[in-house]
């Protein structure tokens, strides 16, 4: 696989401006690259900034979300520098598509699905006739295992999972380079979840989208779809690596704690003690110094507290990046000791 | 298990919505028995009738036919007094913590109402100490929260306040209808641990309703699998997960993403 970087994000900082003119830095200095043909998973608990990151990546800011610094390069073009009209017509939907959590509510209840799609084509491909649109869309729907009768239906005739799949299919009609899926399955039950997941996989296989960013807090999902995983905490990326490595062998204490909260129906889970992380994420209104996970970290030491830097820098390792002052061996030693004392 | 342990049972419980052509049988001739001190999970996909069954057990919906026995006697829900009496014994936690609260009332009032429902006449100091105890049980600080409004709390905190309410009332049966589906993984572990703690400390019977087989396996002793209004498989949690018999159970287990096994997405 070639290592062409489709999307390069450099030091992205975005903030919410509150009613009281306070600034909340929900995404604080995020940098990463997205490779062609890869699925990047972003994990983290609620309020860690993962959804804000997804919104920010679209380069389409509306209050209270504002952009501070950073660059987002898609195919070598810095989309932050594009004028609004150009961004709207040439990037959104064409290069980058976004599926929010409750995507199914995007459908207009008074319009048949095909009318909705015709609207999109009217904007993006004005030269295509309605018949051409119908043919192209019904073929696309068929290839994604959606029955073409969906096109003539009103949204209320479809089930939740079906609606979600319809919206995903519609949002990828323009063959966007990047698809950002923000918890696309969290409102669905397990059976529909699986159907949606296999559809996302098919989108990648058939080359309708080149790369995908998949945001979720369900880690078992990420093992099966993502190639790489980033773990976010308090607006920062605390760990990044290959999916299998991050899940089965986490380095950062926060990732470690997240992995301990996984529940799957497998044999030994019943005897395993679930560990929850005490406390809540820090308030991002204040300017935070040093390690952001400090308050809730069970492995913290005096050197963590006394270290006097604005930001813990990322430690690089072959194929892994993480944000902690300890090196890998020290952390793994601590995890080992702990699991022995727990008796598992 | 001995028969006298059964705290709640249902016989041929059926609930039909609509009539004529649009008739939907949400719960179809369901028999069940729940023993005292057990955690029972009802698992099924959306539309399988699990929530309808929960609402029937709770007495919010009336069954079309069939009978419910509580403590060996037929359940009566005709007068206000009978209902009140029943709800002293059976309480619930719902899926959406954001709509479980009256947004105009402070958190304190939720707990004060519990004292009212349990019918005790306590002095002010006793009420406060009771509320403090209940908050401590769920690892919340009374001083920080009692004067707040629901919108100032996070989803996990709200759900914990709901559990502290249960702790004050000490009902015999708790019906938990997807209590963790709207909150994230980290708080989920906390909530589940608290439910387990309730069982240990006040020997509560818990009916846990979920679509997540993993959760039900982690938590419960017994699992009922529901499909299209019928319980298609029931039994010991370990047996069902390790050795599922009914095709629907096998499919459900197949649909859950697992860590160590390949997930067939084809």
Question: What are its keywords?
Answer:
heterodimer; A: 344 residues; alpha/beta; 11 helices; B: 266 residues; Rossmann fold; 6-stranded mixed sheet; 4-stranded antiparallel sheet; 10 strands; 24% strand
Mean pLDDT of chain A: 84
CATH superfamily of chain B, please? P-loop containing nucleotide triphosphate hydrolases
* Strand arrangement, major sheet of chain A: 6-7-8-3-9-10-12-11
Strand content of chain B: 15-25%
If you had to describe this structure to a student in words, what would you say it looks like?
The complex is a heterodimer of chains A (344) and B (266). Chain A has 11 helices and 12 strands. Chain A is of the alpha/beta class and 344 residues long. An 8-stranded mixed beta sheet of chain A has the order 6-7-8-3-9-10-12-11, with helices on both faces. A 4-stranded antiparallel beta sheet of chain A has the order 2-1-4-5, with helices on one face. The relative contact order of chain A is 0.13. In chain B, 41% of the residues lie in helices and 24% in strands. Chain B is built from 11 helices and 10 strands. Chain B has helices at residues 50-58, 80-89, 97-100, 107-118, 124-137, 142-145, 155-169, 185-202, 213-219, 237-242, 247-255, and strands at residues 6-17, 24-35, 39-43, 65-70, 73-74, 90-93, 173-177, 205-210, 222-227, 230-236. Chain B has a 6-stranded mixed beta sheet with strand order 6-7-8-3-9-10, with helices on both faces. A 4-stranded antiparallel beta sheet of chain B has the order 2-1-4-5, with helices on one face. In chain B, strand 7 (173-177), helix 8 (185-202) and strand 8 (205-210) form a beta-alpha-beta unit. The chains are: A alpha/beta (344), B alpha/beta (266). Chains A and B meet through helix 6 and helix 7 of A and helix 8, helix 9, helix 10 and helix 11 of B.
